[in-house]
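Researcher: Next entry: Putative addiction module antidote protein (Seleniivibrio woodruffii).
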Amino acid sequence: MKGRTLDEIIQEELKTSEDRKMYLELAIEEYTETGDEIQLLLAIRQVVQAGIGFTALAKNTGLSRESLYKTLSGNGNPKLKTIQLILSELGYSFTAIRKSA
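Model: Predicted structure:
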């Protein structure tokens, strides 16, 4: 019997839009606490794969699939504008909130 990869398990868990929403929001929350950019980028990648896919994301953002794969690989160094475009396609806006003193 062949074992499943972590990616396969995560993809199974992200079948519905509600599952993807909860997963991405948790990843964003963890990022604000830990600052772990790689984990955030990988979570966004998982949501893209389970949702709209890289082909549609590339078409909708005007970015190449190769660029998107690299950006969300955990090895890329994406610009803020690129992350904003991707999150916008996933139904999110990027907002800065002032910390309380």
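Model: Note for the record: Residues 7-88 form one domain.
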